[in-house]
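Can anyone check this?
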Amino acid sequence: MIKKILINKENEYFWENGDLHTESGMLKESQIKKAKGVIKSNTEEIFYAFDAGFSDKLKELKRGPAIMLPKDIGIILTTTNINKDSEVLDAGTGSGFLSATLSQFVKKVYTYENEKRFYKIAKENFESLELKNVVLKELNIYEGIKEKDLDLIILDLSEPWKVLQHTKKSLKNGSYLVSYLPTITQVIELVKKAKEYNFMFIKTTELLEREWHVEEQVVRPKSKMIAHTGFIVFLRKY
């Protein structure tokens, strides 16, 4: 697992051990270990050294399927009323990025993954991060949910409406069911079916992220942006 982040210009380097060789020169292991702030390579290039935080470590995890990005995870965290005493369910797990992030904010995360290769990736990632409050299960959520009195359920599934009957039994009254969907036709189907299972439709949203270049008097939006990644549907049990 990475221990430090080293930044040179716009390049990020993740360091665990040993000397670090880059296009901007070499940094010795002994330098990096004690580095705080500015450090120079053997070619006098400036690097900025930081101890790796949780979000930094997520960047280096093994990937399988596409992950939910921080911009989308953020609105889920701030909308659904979860806190340090909450127990939540995430399905399907994929590479485990969402579950890992949730683990930093709630008491316990249960997560279901039915695809063996994704289950293996997520298991390795959780072990790498040494997460103690994530319970990974090799289960198909379409067949049912074992946990009850949950504070939040998040579904990253192709047909989430097929799980509504199970989520209704497992969520606390007033708690949120959130679904992450790539197409608007899936959103339409989910919202239509949700009313049959006592879920109130709160909103559907998508978030677009555009960074800006800021250098002295040169200030402009960057040409590349993170546009549509998925629709996030917020439902609430009543």
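Reply from J.R.: I decoded it. The chain has two domains: 4-53, 61-237.
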